[in-house]
Amino acid sequence: MPRVRDAAASRRRILVAATAEFAAHGIAGARMDRVATEAASSKERIYAYYGNKDALFDAVFTESVRQTLDAVAFDATDLPGYAGRMFDHFADHPDAQRLTTWYRLERPTGRALSAVIKANRTRLEALAAASTTTTFSPVELLTLIQAIASSWGTMNPEFAEAAAAIDREARRRSVIEAVTRLIGQDRP
Q: In terms of Cα–Cα distance, which of 60, 77, 163, 155 is closest to 113?
């Protein structure tokens, strides 16, 4: 009896395996043989589905962006809440933050991904339309909020050790309070 292939299931396994591989090793360090082994697939199948390693990373990162946007609703009228939700997402899904870091490091001038362009445009337009009392431009404001929300997950190991006594809820509160102060609102 011939073996029946489930292409959709195979692609899902490849994306899951590739997500872990790229999060751990970046684009340059990722190895397609490890992805193939973890996905119970072959390198040839991966290349048939995705073309090459860069295209596979694009698919992985695009999916990560989509999942982040689905999980973390952007609300230009509640920026401290958005920062808290972003903090939670990265704390619960450290691979998403690692993929973002690798994307920034290894693709500083590379081909832009439509998912990233759309996410940035949508948030910046919402900030421009919102009536905030801050003197920061929408680009400056979004940059600072994202940096604050992701800061606890990007510490070097030596500093992370010093900050280990601060529990997750206290870290989250500090993110929300910092954004509250940044936009000039009263404390929550």
A: 60
Q: Which domain holds residue 25?
A: 7-182
CA gap 138, 125 in Å, rounded: 8
| Amino acid found at 48 | A
Query: Does the predicted TM-score (pTM) go above 0.70?
Result: yes
Please indicate, yes or no, if residue 135 is contained in any of the structural domains.
yes
Question: Which residues have C-beta within 8 Å of that of residue 99, sequence separation ≥ 6?
Answer: 19, 22, 23, 60, 61, 64
Which tens digit of pLDDT belongs to each residue from 3-45?
556 888 899 999 999 999 999 999 999 999 999 999 999 999 9
